[in-house]
């Protein structure tokens, strides 16, 4: 009945390959007179989702998380992960070959400083390390008396005999009716930003920025419609887009050629060298651009202007067309979510539903909208103790049936007019008193963000504690950010905006973010409630400053059976009832009779 086309539940990790592949890497390093190698999980664009050809770290170690870093020395190797993946790493790698290390306990650069020996030579691929990130290694190496050696070819590539070919998905034009602005207009705005900083040109290495600026999309990576490529945007003249010509139809090439010169990626070095011959000042995002590009520019005579890519901030502020598209996408998604939650409520108590089946059902309901292009990330379908892993991924090996307690499902969709991301934690059978307490505290934090009113100039870091206060009151917390930025038919994880302790970017009107506080009891259960929200102007009578708040975009019931009503204030109950009235009012006319009846009951006043 149901199927998943955009997500695999196969377990791709094979810990048994880790030790022999590490041994082969060490032999290759010795042959080059090297004592170790630095391997980030990265490609030349620093993408979150990598094309299969760039999954070098997964090939070497078996670890498949979205963040990882390996330091392989002659006698030991460390795999660095963050708090999302400490449990997963231990299960996916050969622990006799790789030692998992939480970056919160020790950074890779500090580990190198403490474990490498003086006079050792450590290799690295300069195309995979950001300028900022690599400088930390340079400082550590200097302290340890270690030499870092740039390699012309990544040694993993030579060993990976069945490495997939680089992706060649077609470049697709993103219509101005969806983008809300022409590529020519966007280029003019980018050039205006360059002139403010007196930069002669901008090097664009982030494929999301490339896609947004030139109104193109693609399919080179999973879940995000990215065309991989680069661009050089001069402050005065025509940009140059560097993209594999085999991806371009005549229509796509004509559209790009109307606003930019089109060249092959292999021509990028020549373009950088030409900037050097002019002694140009080139804006480069040191946090996202590779060391290789910076060195090519400097060797040619260019001057680096280090700073954030201005496109990222422009892209983050959605125009009225993009916001209208987001609303339409979320209403469409709400129909699929209502159908899914109705189905789940009927079927889960029978014991016949498992994690994979739930994920397949939700994707099927989304496909039946007729507008689904992709899911925006692998669905996190987590029952019982699996929900205590914030980034759990169901496989045929880990798959659990939904049993009495809580079930968490975090999912999203890619539609041409918008990107969605929503988490609901639902009761199967009965919830315990502890589950209700923690669920209600998470809900209180969620409502605190939803109802926040704040002056212009406030950042996400200043709001993050709003979501945590109810949990802090009980001596609890969660170890991820409260919210991330979201793109417009682009990445479901978009910067620079976010609601977290590290979210220093000012929240501007038009930015879309997630609101997703959570709670995780290891080995028992997890709770997360997530809506997407958009920053909007907020009129307050007598206000002395320009004030802002959030428009809630997501439309899906929050499970009332998991709430302890006495823990909510009158204002919180009023917000929840108003939200549910809105969900029922907007979604009920668009669903079948069975779903409508379920939805009206699920959205009844608390």
Distance between the termini: 34 Å
Count of individual beta strands? 28
Largest sheet report: 6 strands, mixed
Q: What radius of gyration results from the CA coordinates?
A: 25 Å
Strand content is 15-25%
Strand order of the largest sheet: 4-3-2-1-5-6
The CATH homologous superfamily of the largest domain is named: Creatinase/methionine aminopeptidase superfamily
- The first-level CATH class of the largest domain is given as Alpha Beta
Bulk shape: globular
Counting H and I runs of at least 4 residues, what is the number of helices? 19
Estimate the mean pLDDT confidence. Answer: 96
Number of domains: 3
Helix share, percent: 25-40%
CATH topology of the largest domain: Creatine Amidinohydrolase
Architecture (CATH level 2) name of the largest domain:
Alpha-Beta Complex
Give the helix/strand class. alpha+beta
Runs in which pLDDT lies below 50 for 5 or more consecutive residues are: none
Organism: Hansschlegelia zhihuaiae
Domain Peptidase M24: 326-535
Family: Belongs to the peptidase M24B family.
Keywords: Aminopeptidase, Hydrolase, Metal-binding, Protease
């Amino acid at each position: 009945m149901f199927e998943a086309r955009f997500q695999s539940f196969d377990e791709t990790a094979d810990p048994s390959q880790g030790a022999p592949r590490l041994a082969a890497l060490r032999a290759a390093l010795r042959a080059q007179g090297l004592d170790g190698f630095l391997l980030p999980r990265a490609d030349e664009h620093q993408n979150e989702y990598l094309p299969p050809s760039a999954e070098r770290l997964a090939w070497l170690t078996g670890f498949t998380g979205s963040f990882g870093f390996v330091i392989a020395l002659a006698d030991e190797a460390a795999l660095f992960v963050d708090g999302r993946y400490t449990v997963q790493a231990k299960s996916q790698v050969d622990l006799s070959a790789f030692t998992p290390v939480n970056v919160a306990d020790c950074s890779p650069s500090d580990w190198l400083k403490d474990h490498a020996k003086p006079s050792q030579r450590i290799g690295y691929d300069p195309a995979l390390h950001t300028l900022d990130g690599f400088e930390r290694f340079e400082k550590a190496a200097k302290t340890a008396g270690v030499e870092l050696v740039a390699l012309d070819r990544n040694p993993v590539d030579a060993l990976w005999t069945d490495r997939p070919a680089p992706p060649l998905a077609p470049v697709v034009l993103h219509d101005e009716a969806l983008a809300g602005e022409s590529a020519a207009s966007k280029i003019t705005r980018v050039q205006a930003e360059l002139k403010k900083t007196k930069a002669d040109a901008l090097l664009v290495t982030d494929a999301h920025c490339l896609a947004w600026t030139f109104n193109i999309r693609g399919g080179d990576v999973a879940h995000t419609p990215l065309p991989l490529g680069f661009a050089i945007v001069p402050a005065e003249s025509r940009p140059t887009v560097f993209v594999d010509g085999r991806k371009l139809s005549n229509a796509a090439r004509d559209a790009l050629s109307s606003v930019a010169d089109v060249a092959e990626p292999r021509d990028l070095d020549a373009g950088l060298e030409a900037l050097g011959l002019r002694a140009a000042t080139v804006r480069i995002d040191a946090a996202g651009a590779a060391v290789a590009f910076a060195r090519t520019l400097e060797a040619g005579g260019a001057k680096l202007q280090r700073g954030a890519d201005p496109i990222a901030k422009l892209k983050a502020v959605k125009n009225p067309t993009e916001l209208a598209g987001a609303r339409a996408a979320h209403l469409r998604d709400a129909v699929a979510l209502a159908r899914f939650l109705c189905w789940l409520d009927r079927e889960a108590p029978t014991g016949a539903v498992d994690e994979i089946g739930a994920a397949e059902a939700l994707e099927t309901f989304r496909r039946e909208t007729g507008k689904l292009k992709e899911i925006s990330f692998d669905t996190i379908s987590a029952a019982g103790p699996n929900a205590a892993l914030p980034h759990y991924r169901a496989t045929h090996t880990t798959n659990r049936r939904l049993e009495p307690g809580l079930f968490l499902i975090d999912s999203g969709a890619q539609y041409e007019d918008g990107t969605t991301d929503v988490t609901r934690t639902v009761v199967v059978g009965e919830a315990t008193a502890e589950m209700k307490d923690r669920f209600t505290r998470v809900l209180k934090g969620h409502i605190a963000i939803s109802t926040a009113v704040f002056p212009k100039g406030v950042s996400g870091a200043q709001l993050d504690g709003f979501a945590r206060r109810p949990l802090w009151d009980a001596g609890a917390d969660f170890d991820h950010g409260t919210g991330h930025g979201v793109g417009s038919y682009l990445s479901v994880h978009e910067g620079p905006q976010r609601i977290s302790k590290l979210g220093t970017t000012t929240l501007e009107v038009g930015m879309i973010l997630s609101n997703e506080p959570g709670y995780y009891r290891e080995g028992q259960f997890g709770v997360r409630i997530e809506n997407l929200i958009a920053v909007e102007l907020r009129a307050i009578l007598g206000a002395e400053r320009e004030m802002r708040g959030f428009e809630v975009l997501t439309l899906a019931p929050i499970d009332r059976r998991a709430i302890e009503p006495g823990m909510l204030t009158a204002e919180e109950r009023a917000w929840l009832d108003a939200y549910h009235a809105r969900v029922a009012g907007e979604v009920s006319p668009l669903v079948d009779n069975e779903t409508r009846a379920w939805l009206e009951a699920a959205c009844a006043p608390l």
